[in-house]
Write a structure and sequence with these properties.
The chain has 32 helices and 14 strands. With 784 residues, it is mostly helical. This is SET domain-containing protein. InterPro entries: SET_dom, SET_dom_sf, TPR-like_helical_dom_sf, TPR_rpt.
Length: 784
């Protein structure tokens, strides 16, 4: 891309750099004319779209080679590698009209089923047998393996029926004898089992029914454009919106670990796409929904079925019927990419997502593409004109490349001219502003909680630094993208699989805007960092209340201690002073309404102090950085900042070390004292340091000081965020696990409080997303 960009003639580059959305048809047309004559571009497009050179197609030789390796590993008892080889073989095994090819896939599923059975993954084993049987319902080995797996799970009735079918399907006398003796074993097991139990395959769908019939209204403001507001008073923790994506794509780093359709983690029996070797799915259902071909309805020799009882014939039908074969109106998001060609694997995710949105909207319109105009693809906002010149050029090139790639789609042809490419440029600009990152929670085991202490950290880094959260996909939710951003949000977005859920985190009065955080929040970063982040990432200047009104958190987050150690006042750096001065333009609103955040009133620096501080800054008395806002004492910020940095580094080095001991901790405590006398008591770095101490004391087994430091960290965070913020919930999870280990009865209160906070953010989904919380609760009762 860089090379291609550098080869675009200077005049064209300038034209594109200076273009607005209105100029796009002409700039796109000029670039297309240039690229059509430019051989390296033509070559690149050929490489991306030619099925002959595609590396992502099926490859029978490679499948046979992997199968052979899998067999060797199986024979030597190396089941982990056998599983890998069979899975690799399945990924590239062709699944077309040839019976021989289909039989190879069925064999691979049965071989993998045997490995899964050996590894104790019995449910997965049964699922693989079912897949083999959907391809070939007469496959004796698959019925036999299924029977054995069902017996291991105590499903004796099914096991016996599986073995009965296997015996009829089996051609050899030796084979039939083996099945008979297996049946005898299962019958004995059934007889000796106290109460024969039948386990049904559990549907682990994590969607709970929770009614939500909130009527939201679209409102438009000059500062933020369109947005959503409530029409009625909405109680805290109400589910106000759920939505499936218009189009979605898995992020590249999750391609081998998560299902490309539902985004859940892949099981050991993951399923490949039937036509190419790119996507993995957790089930055939997801494979079909994403647009792969189906494995069912292949012709099987039915003559043998005459020898089966009615009951067994019905049983075969039930087992081999694909419950999802009847899906109508399915928008298959992968099918148009599914030719083994390179481009879906190589182009950036947002470009492939643009392709999916485009194809999806064309299908929704009935599949027709106007040969002159694709029309408005999405009705969403964009900031094309504000983009940096380099991004504009890149967008032009990618849009042209995507148009060429989509030319080869089944059923419709994307027109190739300036107007249509300009609409793709707009579409990608809309995706940049409106797409959401699908983040899923990685569940953590309660027993690991103290060991995993650091991983719970809500303190470090950017908005997604919490290791519990895995960024898995990028998606367009057409209604969900109407929610504007606030650094002090009143709603919270989360995902169950690919479905977006939005819940109020506080009471929202009728008519109030409903706003979520696109990343940064008050309490996490100071105002200038938040504003910068939103400008860099989303090209807009934040106009939320957090960034336009003075709040306590922004004042203290990075503040210094007053030079007079007896004073609890705040000393600010120049960048913070400048940012707060900007907000003073809104000061009359704050003073007049008197509706300051309760946080401010709770703190010793109450509304009067804030107003005084603001007033002081305004009349220029203390407007110079380095002066205490309360008593006016001076502090040399250059040396204080250097001292704090040094102190923090020293602290981190000793606490993050693998060989942390009680002695190193004792030494580090003096650095903490130094930090406390340099930085303001509610400076975020002190919270971070307290958290690190808590973690380090846990590691050396000193739980009492660990608990004290954990509490100290929570106390600071309660002042930076509000006391019911989810960040406090995460910290309480750590605190309660330490309290449990100490046998401290306060654990129950901590757990009750954290449950209240989590329920406010996740409602009835709390237990599904955080199963360890329930464990924590159960564990609490016997201990205390
Ligand atoms: C996902 S869209 C939200 C819907 C959008 N307001 C519209 O009119 O379609 C995001 C865009 O909304 C605007 N926006 C959202 N939150 C904002 C805020 N706090 N301050 C200023 N603009 C905001 C920005 O233009 C941003 O790029």
């Amino acid at each position: 891309m860089e090379k291609l960009k550098s080869l675009v003639p200077e005049t064209l580059r300038r034209m594109i750099a200076e273009s607005t959305a209105d100029d796009l048809p002409s700039t796109c047309s000029s670039l297309l004319d240039f690229l059509l004559q430019f051989e390296p571009f033509q070559q690149m497009v050929r490489d991306l779209t030619d099925p002959e050179v595609a590396l992502c197609g099926k490859n029978k030789e490679a499948a046979l080679e992997s199968k052979k390796k899998g067999n060797r590993c199986f024979l030597t008892g190396d089941y982990a590698n056998a599983l890998d080889f069979y899975t690799q073989a399945l990924r590239v095994a062709p699944m077309d009209a040839l019976e021989e090819d289909r039989n190879l896939v069925a064999t691979l599923y049965v071989n993998r089923a045997s490995v899964l059975h050996k590894m104790g993954l019995v449910r997965e084993c049964v699922r693989d047998c079912n897949r083999a049987l959907r391809i070939s319902s007469n496959y004796a080995k698959a019925w036999f393996r299924r029977g054995k797996a069902n017996a291991s799970m105590g499903n004796y009735e099914d096991a016996i029926r599986d073995l009965d079918v296997a015996k009829i399907m089996e051609a050899s006398v030796g084979g039939k004898k083996q099945i008979e003796s297996e049946t005898k074993i299962v019958l004995d097991q059934q007889n000796s089992a106290a109460s024969p139990s039948k386990q049904h395959n559990q549907n682990n769908s994590n969607k709970l029914d929770e009614p939500h019939q909130m009527k939201l209204q679209c409102v438009t403001t000059p500062e933020k454009g369109k947005g959503l507001a409530s029409t009625v008073d909405i109680p805290q923790a109400s589910l106000i919106h759920t939505e499936d994506p218009f189009a979605m794509i898995i992020l590249k780093h999750c391609r081998e670990t998560h299902c490309h359709y539902c985004l859940n983690e892949l099981p050991a029996d993951k399923v490949p796409c039937t036509s190419c070797s790119i996507p993995w799915y957790c089930s055939q259902q997801c494979c079909i929904e994403a647009g792969g071909e189906m494995y069912c309805d292949y012709p099987n020799d039915q003559s043998i079925h005459e020898y089966l009882s009615d009951d067994l014939q019905k049983y075969i039908l039930e087992t081999t019927l694909n419950a999802d074969s009847e899906r109508d109106n399915q928008i298959s998001e992968h099918k148009h990419e599914c030719k083994g060609v390179h481009w879906p694997a190589v182009l950036p995710s947002e470009i492939v997502l643009a392709g999916r949105v485009l194809v999806n909207s064309i299908k929704k319109r009935g599949g027709s593409t106007d040969s002159f105009n694709l029309g408005e693809i999405l009705d969403l906002s964009h900031h094309y004109s504000k983009m940096p010149p380099e991004s504009k050029l890149e967008l032009h090139i990618y849009s042209t490349v995507l148009s060429f790639c989509l030319q080869h789609c089944d059923g419709f042809e994307i027109p190739l001219h300036g107007i249509s490419i300009s609409q793709i440029v707009i579409l990608i600009s809309q995706i940049r502003v409106n797409s959401m990152t699908v983040v899923l929670m990685k569940s953590i085991d309660y027993y690991d909680l103290v060991g995993q202490f650091g991983k719970f950290s809500s303190l470090e880094g950017g908005p997604t630094s919490n290791v519990e959260q895995v960024r898995v996909g990028q998606a367009i939710y057409t209604s969900g993208s109407l929610f504007n951003h606030s650094c002090q949000p009143n709603i919270h977005a989360y995902f169950l699989s690919r479905t977006l859920h939005i819940r109020t985190t506080e009471f929202v009065a009728a008519g109030c805007p409903l706003e979520l955080s696109y990343g940064p929040q008050v309490g996490q970063w100071d105002c200038k960092d938040r504003v910068q982040f939103l400008e860099d990432e989303y090209s807009f200047r934040c106009q939320c209340s957090g960034c336009s009104k003075i709040n306590f958190s922004d004042l203290v987050l990075n503040a210094f201690h007053c030079g007079n150690l007896n004073c609890s006042g705040i000393v600010l750096e120049s960048s913070v002073v400048n940012c707060e001065k900007e907000k003073l333009k809104h000061l009359p609103n704050i003073i007049n309404t008197g509706s300051m955040d309760p946080l401010l009133q709770a703190e010793e620096l109450n509304i009067d102090d804030i107003n005084k501080a603001a007033h002081n800054m305004q009349i220029n008395n203390f407007s110079h950085p380095g002066y205490c806002l309360k008593c006016g004492s001076y502090r040399d910020l250059e040396s204080s900042s250097a001292a704090a940095n040094k102190c923090f580094r020293r602290l981190k080095n000793s606490l993050d070390s693998e060989n942390v001991s009680s002695t190193t901790l004792l030494g580090a405590l003096s650095s903490l004292g130094e930090l406390r006398s340099t930085l303001h008591a509610y400076n975020r770095r002190i919270a971070e340091a307290e958290d690190k101490f808590a973690q380090a004391f846990c590691l050396v087994g000193e739980l009492q000081p660990a608990m004290e430091h954990c509490k100290a960290s929570i106390q600071i965070l309660e002042n930076l965020y509000n006391p019911n913020h989810i960040v406090i919930g995460y910290e309480l999870a750590k605190l309660s696990s330490i309290q449990l280990l100490l046998g401290d009865t306060a654990a129950m209160d901590s757990i009750d409080r954290l449950y209240e906070i989590f329920s406010c953010y996740y409602g009835s989904h709390t237990d599904v997303i955080f199963p360890y919380l329930q464990l924590l609760r159960k564990r609490c009762r016997p201990v205390l």
